[in-house]
Please model this.
Amino acid sequence: MIRTALLTLTVTTCALAQDAIGVFARHCLGCHGASQMSGLDMRTREGMLRGGGRGPAMVPGKAAESLLYKAIRRDGELKMPPGKPVLSAADVTAIAQWIDSGAPWNEKALQTQSTWWSFRPVQRPDGNHTIDSFLGRALRAQGLTDAPPADRRTLIRRLSYDLHGLPPTPEEVGAFVANKDPQAYPKLIDRLLASPRYGERWGRHWLDVVRYADTGGFETDVLLANAWRYRDYVIRSFNNDKPYNVFVQEQIAADEIWPDNLDLDGAYELPKSKLDNLEKRIGTSLYTLGALPVENTFFGDQYRSEWQADALETTSAAFLGLTMGCARCHDHKFDPLSQRDYYRLSAVFAGSEDREVPIVSQMAIFEFTRYQTRWVMADQLKAKLARLGGKNAKFDLTPSERDERESLLRQIGEAYVRAPAPVAKANLLMHTAPVPDTHVLQRGDWKQKGEKVRPGFPAALGEAAEIVEPETSWFIPRRRKALAEWLTSPQHPLTARVMVNRVWQGHFGRGLVATSNDFGRQGDPPTHPELLDWLAAEFMRNNWSVKSLHRQILLSDAYQRSSAALAANMEKDPENRYLWRVSRRRLEGEAIRDAVLAANGSLNTKMYGQPVVPPLSREEADGMRDMSQWPITSDSSEHNRRSVYLFVKRSFQNPMLEIFDAPDTSASCPRRDSSTIAPQSLALMNSEYMQLQAERFAERLKKEAASGTAAQVDRAWRLALSRAPSADEARRAAAYADRAGLARLCLLLFNMSEFLYVD
Ligand code: HEC
Ligand code: HEC
Model:
């Protein structure tokens, strides 16, 4: 009997707490959570008892005397929530009953009721759905009509740029337009997804998100000599359709999840299992290629604090879609992320550091060390040269000294040529011992250490297992493993949503959540929340396959619509938020450069390897203080490789890519800008680079359409615009080419908005 009564009582108080806390979560915590407006923190019972500037906000047992109850009744000076309608009678009653019954607390209720949509678990909508069923419902609700389907030429051009960042060849266009097979479109999607060009295109999108570069930035802008291995790893991962959860795990914690000593076997060839493990571990290079001022290495603690901040910010932006960096110096002002949460997550990276390690067999290292004496010899010759120069300035050397200098220079050159090539290395995350403590840093200042914190994950994002560790600093941490497993758990509210949204953005130009790096309160809410959740659920069900996600999106009617601007829709939804058409998009700098090279036939599709440093024109080189910082690739056929392989120097961006809104590499770039500025047309029209490319295009046309101008114009249109010229265009273009030269016509083509934009 007593037992039953107790149980009933517990259930009722629980329900009361649940209801009241639910109301707070929905209506109050936005301002009285981490942001503590008027000094009031309603995230805890204590916070309400303490109250804000006006004193206690609540008196347990006495609703009528409680300030917060008066505030929601609006019968005094305070009217809460401000600027919003009065709470419903049911909500007001729930709060009154809860206070009157002594204000029982229930931590769980607060978490499960977490207000913010993106912190709630993914909810797969019931029933049968397709992308178009979700979009169609919203379209009809807005009174919008969908644009007609795009024609097949538009479709193949759109698809090629979307999946490859390259135009289709005229032959591919012809074949697709003429293909009567009802499966032609799905087959085209599969063919494009299977091509290695796909990984180069989508790998580049990912490199934006993880602030990829080949140098460290700032004044020193040190070379990150092995960063390109990470770039290649990303391209291979996309091409192999590596499940996204594995991709996340490898980058954060390959070494902790698949521990394998990298010590090299005594064989000439490394065994396959070792190479596979090495490949996973190159994922962790993500944390070795951030922008870091070398000045920060002056104090160990300062360097560590900056490095951990970069690691945390990149992780939260790329994988969580949250601006956690905002909680470094104070509690997050908008999202329920405390400064303590920040340092707990930051502690995950304590005990890890960037280390450069050889990635070849022990035999290869011996092979190097065996002939390392040649490096010693070269060093000795250099030292001798320095002594000779140190005696006089080099201009007043005696004739015999001058001879000696000449001879030394030749010997140094020869010694250098004979010296063994350094062994291949990679920068990977490795462990430090002991594991340093992490403290909350007041105002983010590394000198002002506050409370010591243990590693952990933000409470507002749901429950996670404690990271259990021994009570000593001497242990091998598994903190990143815990982070990677937490992030890739199917219960995690953000990981799948954030990635699905990025892929959607890549196809439609705008995510279902437009702010793809901010799923918090400052970001935009999703235009189609159910669709986002459905896609996220499907993504996980399909084993996190990115290629399956592409297929699903590309097969939708929405993706295959034309870009026609229907007048009635333009009035209601000019921004096309409801996707009644496909928005026209300007190509990114990389795609423009690659398309130019593809059109004129000079694109070199070699994959992978050291970054390519192309020559600069004289004006471009003016921007460079020290040309030794721009070591031009000696093999000129390399200069025509795809843009994803170009050297990314943080302090000096490739001028052509820069004017077309290249990403900022100091922090994660969620989405490229698409500006229209005068220097773009100046560069496309007047730069030495573009003139050279136009000449190459003309040479190609003369070779491939030898019969005369008319044929050359036709071929030019098909190569650059994927269509034949109209009769009028053909006539005027031929007249222009005859007057100004074919190369001039080619340059004009590269400047047409039809070339630079995709419908
Ligand atoms: C949009 C932001 C916002 C929301 C939402 C909001 N408040 Fe407030 N709240 C404020 C501001 C601003 C003040 C200070 C007002 C003033 O001093 O005039 C305040 C003050 C208060 C105070 C007095 C604190 C003190 O001691 O000064 C109480 C109690 C309070 N709010 C309760 C609530 C409750 C309960 C809810 C939810 C039903 C709520 N508020 C929702 C912004 C908000
Ligand atoms: C390097 C430290 C640091 C970082 C990082 C930081 N802030 Fe602040 N912020 C401050 C300081 C210092 C103040 C003033 C004192 C305070 O309000 O805590 C402040 C104040 C604020 C305020 C209150 C301003 C006002 O008028 O009351 C807001 C809002 C804010 N920050 C938002 C942000 C956001 C959003 C981010 C992330 C994009 C961010 N902060 C990142 C240091 C920082």
The pocket of heme C (ligand 2) is lined by residues 323, 325-326, 328-330, 333, 443-444 (CB under 6 Å). Residues 1-11 have pLDDT under 50 and may be disordered. The two ends are 73 Å apart (CA to CA).
